[in-house]
Design a protein that fits this description.
By secondary structure, the protein is mostly beta strands. It folds into three domains: 81 residues, Translation factors (Elongation Factor Tu (Ef-tu), domain 3); 64 residues, Double Stranded RNA Binding Domain (2-Layer Sandwich), CATH 3.30.160.810; 46 residues, no CATH class. It has three helices and twelve strands, in the order βββαβαββββαββββ. Strands 1-2-11-10-7-12 form a six-stranded antiparallel beta barrel. The longest helix has 6 residues. InterPro entries: Ribosomal_uL3, Ribosomal_uL3_bac/org-type, Transl_B-barrel_sf. One of the primary rRNA binding proteins, it binds directly near the 3'-end of the 23S rRNA, where it nucleates assembly of the 50S subunit.
């Protein structure tokens, strides 16, 4: 299993050798350091913990300083990936974009853009009310939400209504790596990925 964490830079396009133009998302993924190996015996599951980014020593908490003392660095972020084959990793190893191959299928997870409070038409795709037959101001209304019939005089749980939209964890499968640029720590991925520019993305293959 391959994994890395990167930041969404922007969307662009890539020209292939045959002249085809492919929409791509640029993701910058700085080299990450293995900070801990978790095992079934000690932690109850197998996983690799990675640290990336740096912060001032004065801003690091004491437990964090002790956790990474042997590595001599204060990391800004930590991420954990559960894997079965932990024997191939040891503390201090580096994980870079060079581990990924051209054309490889990957899974990308991140937080989607927050849309704020939205109505039912945008949030759930409702059709809205009639624009005619004597109705006013009902174009984007939800309609009835319950009554004395099958609902039993109440609003049933899970009723689709207006509310906060976006800001959810989204996972997109089967994206392909269009290009790997190790010198710039950049992956070009076909299609779009969750979130706005600067969103942290978890990439696995």
């Amino acid at each position: 299993m391959k994994f890395i964490v990167g930041k969404k830079v922007n969307m662009s396009q890539n020209f292939r050798g045959d002249g085809a133009v492919v929409p791509v998302t640029a993701i910058v993924a700085e080299p990450m350091t293995v900070t801990q190996i978790k095992t079934v015996e000690t932690d109850g599951y197998n996983a690799v913990q990675l640290g990336f980014g740096t912060i001032k020593e004065s801003r690091a908490k004491k437990p964090q300083k002790g956790h990474t003392k042997a590595l001599g660095s204060n990391f800004a972020h930590f991420r954990e990936f559960r894997i079965d084959d932990i024997a191939s990793y040891k503390v201090g190893d580096k994980v870079t974009v060079a581990n990924f191959n051209l054309g490889e299928k990957i899974r990308v997870s991140g937080t989607s853009k927050g849309k704020g409070f939205q109505g039912v038409v945008k949030r759930h795709g409702f059709k809205g009310g009639s624009r005619t037959h004597g109705q006013k101001h009902s174009e984007r209304e939800p309609g009835a939400i319950g009554g004395a019939g099958r609902a039993g005089g109440r609003v049933v749980k899970g009723m689709r209504m207006a509310g906060r939209m976006g800001g959810d964890r989204i996972t997109v499968d089967n994206l392909k790596i269009e290009a790997v640029l190790p010198e710039q720590n950049i992956l070009l991925v076909t299609g779009s990925v969750p979130g706005s520019r600067g969103t942290m993305l978890e990439i696995t293959a």
